[in-house]
Amino acid sequence: MTQRKLTSEQIDNLFELCEFQNVFYYDVQIELVDHLASAIEAIWETNPEISFEEAVFQVCEQFGVDPCFNASYQSLLPKISGDHFKGQSGFEAIKEAKEKELRGKYDRLQWKYIGEFFHLPKIILTLALTFTLYFILRLSNNDIMVSYVIQCFYLLSMAVYLIFIYPKKFRLTIVDGKSFLLYNQFKNIRRAAIGTGFSAYNIVALFSKFSHNKFFSPVSNYITLELLTAFLITLLGIMIFALCVYTPQRVKEDFTREFPQFVKN
Amino acid sequence: MYKGSLSTIILKLLGEKGRMYGYQITQEVKAISAGEYMITEGALYPMLHKLEAQGMLTVEIEMTGNRMRKYYSITHNGKKEVVDRMTEMESFIRNMQSLLNPKIDMA
Questions:
Q1: Which end of chain B is more exposed for a tag (fewer CB within 10 A), N or C?
Q2: ipTM
Q3: What structural domains does chain B harbor?
């Protein structure tokens, strides 16, 4: 006797079940649907007469998921107690855990990359940038115009990059327009880049104000303040580069490696 | 259960069996332990995703029949980790045994 398998319609039904449980990302759905389908087929192996609906019900119970969104499952409702599916569904917990892991993964990669700028050979670049900026600040003799030009250049280039370049550089055309949790990282990173960019601007602007403030100038050492400002601008530049260029590039590489069949060329 | 044993079980299993998918892992653990241990889906998938994010596992997605399946394989880092964890677990078991069944020196 041939083993009873799920039809394509039944598979679609399981994808619907995931969406009903607030799992909209296709990369998370694929795994859950395969698990449910494998478990249903295992039930059919021992009891081939059982209906698809009842098999779904049994499998969902293990996951702590309520399958009763579908009218055909309603007949099974009296079989369960009222408290059975209260609270967060098992699917949602899996999705949230995956979201957290992905965020953590790219955060770790980003900080590791930033750390490289404080070890050989990249530290040479960090020092070179810091001292170049320091000499610009020195030579300009704390000219407020130079400070404004640097700040305007910084803000403008950030805005141009994030609005026009970033979306094109890290755009992938996805088959069927499906939504992927991994792909969503591009949006999260851009949001984080805007946040970091503006807080970076505020810190730099604050330091430049300090250097022009008469109250601070007699007590603060100009050399230290300028060197600190130069280092801070360099550090923030590295952080923004990691966030805007390095990390999204890694996401793009991971996505094309993991889901090549979903990327349109 | 000993802390970290779920991830050790997953890594060890993948190291021995090659690539596996989620449901297969739950069934394999059940079979090996003769039904003694059951890995719940709610614990398995977050752990697989964690190990994947840590670079211990790598994934591939393939069509199987009319659906897609995500396979997990152990990476080089994962293999190194499993050796460390097995050593750690063996020493934990040894220490527990000597604590719970101390040999009485009659001399």
A1: C
A2: 0.83
A3: 5-95 (1.10.10.10)
